[in-house]
C-alpha cells in the first residue's frame, strides 16, 4: 500500500435483520470500521535465543476513553498491538499467561511527550517459534494544552516469565509512528498542570522505581504512592518539590497488585493537586521455596459476541393517503463480552432505503428508541444510544465504556418507527438493518 495507514475492521459481529411493513415500508441497520496503523519495527530477541534482530512490521491501534477532554482532564489510553513484529524467539512452546507487555504512546500536536502503558500478565499459549498474540496496554495522561493532540504507537517490550525472565524490546525504526488517534482538548480554568514520569514501567517485587515530577507547588511535600486500580496501596514515599516545582524521588513497590503510581500534595489524593496514575506492573518471579508447591490457575479470555432473537421484523400497516408511523420492535439482541481487559464495546446500526412497488421510502425515515439492560454481576454497565433517526449514516444502539475492568452480559432492544409518506404507493416495502458490534 502507498500509505502506512490501513483501514481495518475491528473484530465485529454483523447481524442483518430484514424489516417489512405492509402498504408502507421496511428497514435496515449498519456496520463500522476502525483504523489500525502499520510501522516498521526493530526487535531484539533475548541473547539466549541466539538469533539476530528482527526488522518487521507492527500493526497497532490507539484508543482513548475521551476524544474531547478539557485541559486538566485525565485521559485513559489503550495501546493495542494487533500484530507484533516479533514472534516467540525460541523453539520452546510458551504456556498461557507468561507475557507482560509494556510500552509508550507518543503525544504530538498541541501537547508533546510520552504516555507509559502496561498490560496484564495474560496471553494464550504460544507455539515454539510461533507468532506472539495480540495484546493491549493501558495508561493515562493529563491534558495540559488546548487543541488537537495526536497519539501514535511507540516502542514496546514483551517480557516473558517462563524458565527464564526474558525481554524482547521492539522500537519504532522511524519515529514517530503514524497517528492512530487524535483528541481535541478545550481550555478550562483553573488548570492542574502537575505531571509525573516513571523511570520504568515494570519491576520485581521490592524494586525501586524513579518518579520525576513537574509543575508542583514549589517547596511542597509530595507523596509518591502505588495504586491497585482506583485504590492506593501501602507503598508510599515522600519527596520535596524544589523552587521550580520539580522533584525526583524513588518509590519501592512491594504490592504485587500494583497497576500504577501517583504523586500528590496534601494528606490524601485529589484531582486538583495530584498527577497520575502512570502505568506500572509488578513482575512476580519469586522462586518457590524448597518443599513447597506453587499452585496456579488460569482465567482464560473469551470473546465479544452478539446474538439476535430473529432476523425479520414486521412493522404495523399504514393506510394509503394517510401514511404516518409504521411501528414495531427490534428483535432482542444479546451481547456477551467475556474478553477481560480494559476495552468497552459499541453496537451500531445503519439502514438501507425501503424499496417496493416501484417506489422507495428514504432510510432517514426510520427512527428508534434504544434500551439496554445489564445482567447482574457484570463489571461494565450498558448505556443505551440516543433516540432518533437511524438512517444510512448510522447511529449507536448501545455501548459500554473503556475501563480498568470490563465485561458482562447485556440485553439490547429498541422500539422502531418508520415515517411513511401519505401517498406512498400501495405495497410492501423492505430494507435491511445491519448491526455491527465492535
Descriptive tags:
mainly beta, 10-stranded antiparallel sheet, 0% helix, globular, Immunoglobulin-like, 6-stranded mixed sheet, single chain, disordered N terminus, 438 residues
Unreliably modeled segments:
1-34
Work out the number of β strands. Answer: 33
CATH architecture of the domain at 7-32 and 300-437: Sandwich
Determine the CATH topology of the domain at 7-32 and 300-437.
Immunoglobulin-like
Percent of residues in β-strands? over 45%
Spatial extent as radius of gyration: 26 Å
| Helical segment count | 0
Q: Report helical residue fraction.
A: under 10%
**Structural class, please?**
mainly beta
Kindly provide the name of the CATH class of the domain at 7-32 and 300-437.
Mainly Beta
Task: Give the overall shape.
Answer: globular
Separation of termini? Answer: 25 Å
Mean pLDDT: 85
Q: How is the biggest beta sheet arranged?
A: 10 strands, antiparallel
Protein described:
This protein is mainly β and 438 residues long. Among the domains are: 7-32 and 300-437, Immunoglobulin-like; 205-282, Immunoglobulin-like, CATH 2.60.40. Helix content is 0%, strand content 52%. It is built from no helices and 33 strands. It has strands at residues 5-8, 13-22, 34-43, 54-64, 74-83, 99-109, 113-118, 135-142, 147-162, 164-172, 181-185, 195-198, 202-203, 207-214, 221-228, 231-240, 247-253, 260-265, 274-279, 281-282, 304-308, 312-315, 324-329, 333-337, 345-351, 354-356, 359-361, 366-374, 383-384, 388-389, 395-400, 408-420, 428-437. The strands form seven sheets. Strands 1, 3, 4, 5, 6, 7, 8, 9, 10 and 11 form a ten-stranded antiparallel sheet that branches. The protein has a six-stranded mixed sheet with strand order 22-2-33-25-31-29, with no helix packed on it. Strands 21, 23, 24, 28, 30 and 32 form a six-stranded antiparallel sheet that branches. A hairpin with an 8-residue loop joins strand 18 (260-265) and strand 19 (274-279). The radius of gyration is 26 Å and the shape is globular. The chain starts with a strand and ends with a strand.
Amino acid at each position: 500500500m502507498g500509505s502506512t495507514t490501513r483501514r481495518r475492521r475491528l473484530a465485529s459481529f454483523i447481524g442483518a435483520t430484514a424489516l417489512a411493513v405492509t402498504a408502507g415500508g421496511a428497514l435496515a441497520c449498519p456496520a463500522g470500521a476502525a483504523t489500525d496503523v502499520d510501522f516498521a519495527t526493530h526487535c531484539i530477541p533475548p541473547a539466549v535465543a541466539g538469533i539476530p534482530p528482527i526488522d518487521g512490521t507492527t500493526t497497532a491501534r490507539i484508543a482513548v476513553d475521551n476524544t474531547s477532554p478539557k485541559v486538566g482532564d485525565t485521559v485513559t489510553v489503550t495501546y493495542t498491538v494487533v500484530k507484533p513484529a516479533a514472534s516467540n524467539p525460541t523453539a520452546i512452546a510458551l504456556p498461557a499467561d507468561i507475557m507482560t507487555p509494556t510500552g509508550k504512546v507518543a503525544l504530538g500536536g498541541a501537547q508533546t511527550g510520552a504516555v507509559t502503558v502496561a498490560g496484564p500478565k495474560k496471553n494464550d499459549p504460544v507455539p515454539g517459534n510461533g507468532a506472539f498474540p495480540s495484546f493491549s496496554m493501558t495508561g493515562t495522561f493529563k491534558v495540559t494544552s488546548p487543541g488537537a493532540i495526536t497519539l501514535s504507537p511507540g516502542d514496546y517490550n514483551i517480557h516473558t516469565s517462563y524458565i527464564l525472565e526474558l525481554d524482547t524490546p521492539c522500537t519504532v525504526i522511524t519515529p514517530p509512528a503514524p497517528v492512530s488517534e487524535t483528541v481535541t482538548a478545550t481550555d478550562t480554568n483553573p488548570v492542574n498542570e502537575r505531571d509525573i514520569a516513571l523511570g520504568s514501567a515494570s519491576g520485581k517485587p521490592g524494586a525501586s522505581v524513579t518518579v520525576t515530577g513537574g509543575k508542583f507547588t514549589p517547596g511542597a511535600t509530595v507523596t509518591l504512592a502505588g495504586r491497585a486500580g482506583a485504590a492506593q496501596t501501602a507503598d508510599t514515599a515522600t519527596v520535596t518539590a524544589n523552587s521550580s516545582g520539580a522533584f525526583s524521588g524513588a518509590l519501592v513497590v512491594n504490592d504485587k497488585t500494583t497497576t500504577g503510581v501517583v504523586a500528590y500534595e496534601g494528606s490524601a489524593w485529589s484531582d486538583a493537586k495530584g498527577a497520575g496514575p502512570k502505568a506500572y506492573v509488578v513482575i512476580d518471579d519469586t522462586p518457590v521455596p524448597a518443599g513447597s508447591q506453587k499452585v496456579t490457575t488460569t482465567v482464560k479470555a473469551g470473546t465479544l459476541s452478539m446474538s439476535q432473537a430473529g432476523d425479520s421484523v414486521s412493522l404495523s400497516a399504514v393506510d394509503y393517503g394517510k401514511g404516518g408511523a409504521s411501528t414495531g420492535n427490534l428483535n432482542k439482541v444479546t451481547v456477551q463480552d467475556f474478553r477481560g481487559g480494559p476495552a468497552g464495546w459499541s453496537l451500531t446500526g445503519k439502514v438501507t432505503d425501503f424499496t417496493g412497488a416501484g417506489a422507495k421510502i428514504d432510510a432517514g425515515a426510520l427512527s428508534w428508541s434504544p434500551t439496554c439492560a445489564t445482567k447482574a454481576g457484570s463489571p461494565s454497565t450498558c448505556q443505551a444510544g440516543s433516540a432518533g433517526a437511524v438512517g444510512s449514516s448510522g447511529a449507536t444502539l448501545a455501548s459500554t465504556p473503556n475501563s480498568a475492568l470490563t465485561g458482562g452480559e447485556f440485553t439490547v432492544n429498541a422500539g422502531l418507527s418508520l415515517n411513511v409518506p401519505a401517498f406512498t404507493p400501495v405495497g410492501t416495502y423492505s430494507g435491511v438493518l445491519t448491526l455491527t458490534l465492535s
